Amino acid sequence: MKNPVISGIGLWTPENTITNEELVTAYNAWANAFNTEHLDAIQAGDINAKPLSTAEFIEKASGIKRRFAYCKDGVLDISRMRPRIPARADHELSVQAEIALAAAHKALISANKSADQIDAVIVACSYTQRAYPAIAIEVQHELGIQGFGFDMQVACSSATFGLHRAYEMIKAGTAKAVLVINPELTSPQVNYCDRDSHFIFGDVAVATIIEDSSTCHSEHSYEILSTKAATVFSNNIRSNFGYTARVSDTDPFSLDALFHQNGRKVFKEVCPMAVEHILKHIEQHNLSVENVQRWWLHQANINMNHLITRKLLGRDASESEAPIVLNEYANTASAGSLIAFHQNHEDLNRNDFGLICSFGAGYSIGSLVIKKR
Ligand code: CO8
């Protein structure tokens, strides 16, 4: 009987950070320039003036103070308002493979494993920079891994759903050790000219190794008791970016091709779904909330996490019970719950229980109940 465990985790962060203040200064300069340029149309009521953003709102509404950026150049330039990431030739390593590899190397060290002991690679993230060949196969090639790799996308739940696939592959014996990587290069999809969402996302890459307990030799490892996934269709978080823009004669760079959401509705609808999902999942193992020492929740909004943990526990959770990394990392799409895990797991004791849970676009919810070994 196979017994899948998380044996290692690695986190790569870019060198650049962008504070709320920097972002707001650039956005407001852009908005003022837009309003001046379109003064007549605004006064005639033909278009709305662009409202100004504030760093105070951002921190209060989201808990975010800064975010990492793969490329800062261009984001704060009001004549551009998007990062400048030059194209690479086909023979060069692609950007997402580069950041995936940076996290993968750290995960291998943490799992005390070498690449030749891995036989499957899953790259799971909100966007991949091309359709094919899969980023996972490029990573597999760079690491010299014999086996197979594939990419998968489930927006905010890509990481947990990727871990679910790895868990099932170990259980089924179709792989011996799986490298799951989440290179969340979010900044190319952010509309830095939209006050409601310009502050939300940051870039990062996380990698995790799942293997059978019999081959695990790492210092900190976690038995995966089970995984649980749920999806319910919603248009409240959407990006229409896609390859059919060419044939529908629509602008591939139109605003609806970028991330956009009805944040209030998402907040209201997803919180109760997440609470119900989590309670059902831990009940499967005859666990009550008191039996769970740590909650590594999705990191989209601090108020969402506080509401969810309050509903779960009937009280406020402490920082160590339900860690928050939003202040430093912002929303990193699917990587958030795993960053929280990466930063806050080594202090757990043998047989402590924890829950990793993502929730977001789709809607999608993915969770893993784990036990420290
Ligand atoms: N500065 C100042 N004021 C602002 C700003 C700003 N930047 N933005 C909005 N306001 C104003 C609004 O206009 C509004 O004004 P008014 O009351 O006059 O209408 C007021 O502030 C309140 O606005 P909101 O009601 O929108 O504010 P909220 O308190 O709801 O906070 C949030 C907004 C932070 C967006 C919040 O609703 C939220 O976080 N909701 C949850 C959203 C969520 O979890 N989304 C998941 C997204 S991640 C995901 O699914 C992955 C997608 C794939 C990755 C994408 C990569 C790019």
How would you characterize the overall build of this protein?
The chain has helices at 20-37, 39-43, 55-62, 95-111, 135-143, 158-172, 245-248, 263-283, 302-313, 326-329, 336-343, and strands at 4-12, 16-19, 66-69, 120-124, 148-152, 177-184, 204-212, 222-231, 237-238, 260-261, 292-297, 353-360, 364-372. The protein has 373 residues and is of the alpha+beta class. It has a 9-stranded mixed sheet with strand order 5-4-6-7-1-8-13-12-11, sandwiched between helices. A two-stranded antiparallel ribbon has the order 2-3. A two-stranded antiparallel ribbon has the order 9-10. α4 crosses α5 (135-143) and α8 (263-283) runs parallel beside α9.
At a glance:
The protein contains 11 helices and 13 strands.
Would you spell out the secondary-structure blueprint of this structure?
Elements (H helix, E strand, L loop, with lengths): L3 E9 L3 E4 H18 L1 H5 L11 H8 L3 E4 L25 H17 L8 E5 L10 H9 L4 E5 L5 H15 L4 E8 L19 E9 L9 E10 L5 E2 L6 H4 L11 E2 L1 H21 L8 E6 L4 H12 L12 H4 L6 H8 L9 E8 L3 E9 L1
Parallel strand pairs: 4-5, 4-6, 11-12
Antiparallel strand pairs: 1-7, 1-8, 2-3, 6-7, 8-13, 9-10, 12-13
The structure holds octanoyl-coenzyme A.
Any descriptors?
22% strand; globular; two-stranded antiparallel ribbon; Peroxisomal Thiolase, Chain A, domain 1; binds octanoyl-coenzyme A
CATH C-level label of the domain at 222-372: Alpha Beta
CATH topological fold name of the domain at 222-372: Peroxisomal Thiolase, Chain A, domain 1
Beta-strand residue percentage: 15-25%
Helix content: 25-40%
> What is the string of helix and strand elements?
EEHHHEHEHEHEEEEHEHEHHHEE
Structural class: alpha+beta
The largest beta-sheet arranges its strands as: 5-4-6-7-1-8-13-12-11
Which parts are unreliable, with pLDDT below 50 for 5 consecutive residues or more? none
Indicate the overall shape.
globular
Largest sheet: 9 strands, mixed
Number of distinct beta strands: 13
Determine the N-to-C terminus distance.
17 Å
CATH superfamily of the domain at 222-372: Thiolase/Chalcone synthase
CATH architecture of the domain at 222-372: 3-Layer(aba) Sandwich
Averaged pLDDT: 97
Question: Any ligands, ions or cofactors bound here, and which?
Answer: octanoyl-coenzyme A
